[in-house]
Amino acid sequence: MKHDDVDQSASALFLEEDYRRSVAGDVPSRFLPGTSIEIVHEVARGIAFRHVLFDFDGTLSLIREGWPAVMVDMMTEEILATGTAETPAEISRLCHEFVMRLNGKQTIYQMIELAGEIRKRGGQPQDPLFYKEKYHDRLLEKIRHRREALRNGTARPDDYLIAGAFGILAAIRDLGLPMYLASGTDEKYVAEEAALLGLIPYFGGRVYGAIDDYRNFSKQMVIERILRENKVEGSALLGFGDGYVEIQNIKSVGGVAVAVASDEACRGGLADAWKRDRLIGVGADIVIPDFRESDALLAYLFRE
Questions:
Q1: Are strands 256-260 and 237-241 parallel, antiparallel or unpaired?
Q2: Domain boundaries in the chain?
Q3: Measured between alpha carbons, how far is residue 238 from residues 97, 143, 191, 228, 265 in Å?
Q4: Which residues pair with 65 in a beta bridge?
Q5: Is the backbone of residue 46 left (phi > 0), alpha (psi -120 to 50) or beta?
Q6: Using CA of residue 208, residue 213, residue 219, residue 225, what is the dihedral sign?
Q7: Which of 39, 65, 77, 139 is the most buried (most CB within 10 A)?
Q8: What is d(CA 253, CA 14) in angstroms, rounded to the nearest whole number?
Q9: pLDDT tens for residues 172-221?
Q10: In this structure, which topology does domain 8-63+158-301 adopt according to CATH?
């Protein structure tokens, strides 16, 4: 994706919003018979889906599973360095709260929050990009063995993919629909890790991720570009994600949003309750724990 053709004056319109629940209370739903596919809002028959958007981490990839602990530990150290009288446990709880509250947005937003917490305690924070690079260095060290195992063939892509991922990607490809990968993780890492997982043949050059100038990238920008360049309405967009940003963005243009409430650590085939509630809260139409039942899901979505 070319980022330099974005209208600078309009870029502020695409800044990612904080989580804002738009669906209140208990929402009635049903499950497709014999499946774990939860229908929150019925999808009308005969929708002519033309384009399909996927988030990356937690939706398809498990390479970065466990990232919150790495981020929270780094942030806790930075805040404690201000000399605050708060205990490490108190700071860790604070960081965990805002890291998860901002989960789904580009990584830089969490680092902006960190800089603000340092400033509140009388510290002089570094540029948020400094903290983002420091976090990435630590995370890459933690997951180095995963990436190396994929690179040298001692691990299979399925070892680090959400269950059933290849199945649904192949099925959508066979339907002739172009797929797009859009992530809040830096684009260089998304492209590299998607290649390690064997996903590039499904997406081709349609892989988008965060850049240092975060004002000139967002998932909303990717969506708007898909619709504009292909001259289609938002109702032609089908999207999958485990973060609130992509679900919110897909719904804002009138698309159908499938929440992948993946339990990244256990991978037991059950929806993660926290993700499920969070994503229903921003309007997800369907909730699935993974892609193991993609045949039933696609049969429902593409029924005449």
A1: parallel
A2: 8-63+158-301, 67-142
A3: 31, 31, 22, 16, 26
A4: none
A5: left
A6: negative
A7: 139
A8: 13
A9: 999 999 999 999 889 999 999 999 999 999 998 999 998 888 888 889 99
A10: Rossmann fold (3.40.50)
